Amino acid sequence: MKIGIITQARATSTRLPAKVLLTAGGKTFLQHHLDRLAQTGLPVIVATTTNEADEQIVEQAGAAGVAVFRGSELDVLSRFAGAIRENELDGVVRVTSDCPLIDAAVVAEGVDRFRAEADDNLYVSNCLERTFPRGMDYEIFSAARLLQADADATLPVDREHVTAYLHQNRTGDMRLLNLPFDGGDASKYRLTLDTQDDRNLLTTLIEDFGAAELNCADLVAIMEKHPELHALNEHIEQKKLGE
């Protein structure tokens, strides 16, 4: 079974424009993200848009030795479907590029569970019931499931949010498996990049605490020890589906 990681990225983010191209510790957040994913040993594909604004994303992915698929900005589902077909994947790990500190071992654990069951009807994630910090999220599912969603989904919200159709139209044979964080409930922490306050926290973690080399448990331990770091972005509300 060929499983690949598809990460979506674009420069036209609304809350913090070109956020993945901003830098911390001498690298862009996108470079940090791709470096972390490379540690899984899985093929990585950046699914970006055909917009000229995303040329830098294509260049940075190429420099990292990462494959790129370019498609529609708003129809992200079709972007994923195209990346699946072009790279002949049987299984997909979906992540987003606003997670510069995503833990490769966390992703690998999910992939191991998916492989072990060898079931096209299985959906594995670590955020169905959130215990991980935001910024560690992944979803794993069969390529066949997503290609069927691409063929069937018509609502704009389903085309934009990739797996929304899978959740809302799943049949009785689709099994959901949630893998929790071993360290308890760390869901209050935001290690994701969506606003300037998120950027301030991530930059501090990378430049002052060596976060680029730390795993999820280490990062949570830092956040627990330094409540002033949590205070930097604890007020940020996550965007809702469709916003």
Structure description:
By secondary structure, this protein is α/β, with parallel strands linked by helices. The protein has a single domain (3-189), classed as Spore Coat Polysaccharide Biosynthesis Protein SpsA, Chain A (Alpha-Beta Complex), CATH 3.90.550.10. It is 38% helix and 16% strand. The strands form two sheets. The chain has a seven-stranded mixed beta sheet, with helices on both faces. The protein has a two-stranded antiparallel ribbon with strand order 2-3. The radius of gyration is 17 Å and the shape is globular. The termini are far apart. The relative contact order is 0.16. The mean pLDDT is 94.
Query: What is the CATH architecture assignment?
Result: Alpha-Beta Complex
Fraction in helix: 25-40%
What value does the average pLDDT take?
Answer: 94
Structural class: alpha/beta
Per the CATH scheme, the topology name is Spore Coat Polysaccharide Biosynthesis Protein SpsA, Chain A
Strands side by side in the biggest sheet:
5-4-1-6-8-7-9
Overall tally of structural domains: 1
Number of helices: 10
Observed structural traits:
about 240 residues, alpha/beta, Spore Coat Polysaccharide Biosynthesis Protein SpsA, Chain A, 7-stranded mixed sheet, two-stranded antiparallel ribbon, about 15% strand
